[in-house]
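REQUEST
  id: r-88c1
  op: predict_structure
  target: Arachidonate 5-lipoxygenase a
  payload:
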Amino acid sequence: MPTYTVTVATGSQWFAGTDDYIFITLVGTDRCSERTLLDKPLYNDFERGAVDSYDVRVEEDLGELVLVKIEKKKYWVQDDWYCKYITVKTPSGDYLEFPCFSWLVDDKEIVLRDGRAHLPQDDKTSLVKQHRQKELNFRRKTFRRVHSTRAWQPGFPMSIDANAHKDLPRDIQFDSEKGVDFVLNYVKAIDNLCVNHFMHMFQSSWTGLDDFERIFVRIKNTISEYVMQHWKEDFMFGYQFLNGCNPVVIQKCTKLPEKFPVTHEMVSVSLERDLTLEQEVEAGNIYLVDYEVIDGIRANRTDPCTMQYLAAPMCLLYRNVKKKILPIAIQLGQTPGEDTPIFLPTDGENDWLLAKIWVRSADFQYHQNITHLLRTHLITEMFAIAMYRQLPAVHPVYKLLLPHIRFTIAINTKAREQLINECGIFDKANATGGGGHVQLIQKAMKSVTFRSLCFPDMIKGITDSHGYLCFLHTFVSNVVHIYYTSDEALQADEEIQAFIKDVCSFGMQDFDHCEFPKLLKSREELTEYLTVIVFTASAQHAAVNFGQYDWFSWIPNAPSTMRRPPPNQKGMADVNLIIESLPDRGRSSWHLGALYLGMYPNEHFIEKPVKAAMEKFRKQLAEITSSIKLRNEGKKLPYYNMSPDQIPNSVAV
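RESPONSE
  id: r-88c1
  status: 200
  body:
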């Protein structure tokens, strides 16, 4: 009798093993095996991390092995099981791999195809075509989008239809919900930071700027301590617009805006090249940060005992002869006039410092809501939902994207449940809490276009493209060209075209401004599109997420809220006004607690050409990592956030 040797790998995460009955059926082009119980006498099968082998005997050869069907049936009580993969050795000695990486819950069955990627037009038999369609039909029932009339927040990118983490499909839940429980982790963070006794001291101001060290002493590191020592300096203020957590707001100034009437006479003492302000603009030495999007956003009113304030400042920056970026003018509103003075470095020390603090507070709000939440988390979830609904596991683009959207939907759902929900953690300390964050994201959505997610367009006029992106683009291009031998092959792929259309029509809800494509005609267009997704979920998120503790933990450098209105005239500021404007002890502690929350691990590809492309990509990333480490040696402010060894695959890692 022909014998097939089946090897089953159980996941190594907690509770991955099972005591339930596991059955297997092998499906070939000629016939199927009988449903076979996988069980060894006097042996504990399918333990966590185990790799077990079994013989499946058949009357006749099955032909070419096409599918493997796995069933789980209750033994005593329902016992979920995580299957990593199955390999089958045929009677002729060939090995076939069937990636799974899925949970089997209740009395569930799952049908697997071998690990080779296939485009829909490559499938010729009705058996595999039907399997492909059944998988997509099941996914579309499981991964439901929120209906537009019930959307979590109107005007946001479309999200998953789940009120809580436990409502999500098991395969995209965190292995341990406690691991991403924001409330539980928050309590741990507060305890670790030893700021428990400050938590409820709302309305209680610090006695002076140095007093902030009382909650800073437990969290100092090389960068944060340097920030604490130098945060008042213009160099440190300007440096953060390129190297801090939010390096996306600064733009090269090609024309001085009318709403920001800075004159040469105001800033001449700050210019070093013997040029007028207008000439410095023409020479490309003037930059602008403008927080116009915050204008009109309602400040947090959840605490009736504490007024909180927002401002929409503008700041003019100058690249001096030493190539340092320095602030030369600040206006704390969008409408010029007597009540909106332009603050200058030549003004009183406290006036200038308070103006810079207001800019840093606005930058914090922009970063938290737009740069981080909207443009990495919510945008990646939109791509993820479309991927699950339109691409089967056998599609090469599904295999490419899956590691980069891993747990994105889960962490976003948990955030909607505990972090950014009404009366959630975000409301405790942020000036945009209490609904302002919703307004801000709705407003910012109007500037989200496909081109705005393309990194070269984002940094145009600021700096050259990053080596990581070049290598990433090459890697994605290699994968695309392995499976699509021509542009016509791409155009004939109904699934990828449905994925692209889903993102625009449902994810972005066909917003007129979004300019997301509804179809792709060339392999280069697909390469750019997929590079945007991978970059957004990995490097972009790493750049704006992992430096938060470094740059935001010294609270005067990034106030999460302001308790006095922005000054409407010069000469008002003194140390007392600055202290009364900054967050009180309670909000400072909540702010720190929130900050404290803060590679293709599963081989879905098995083809040698793709594995070779992945290995080449890994080597290129290792070279970038080495060069960044070398460049950072001896620097007082090393920058590691875009080092490949510091970039996780997805926003949830």
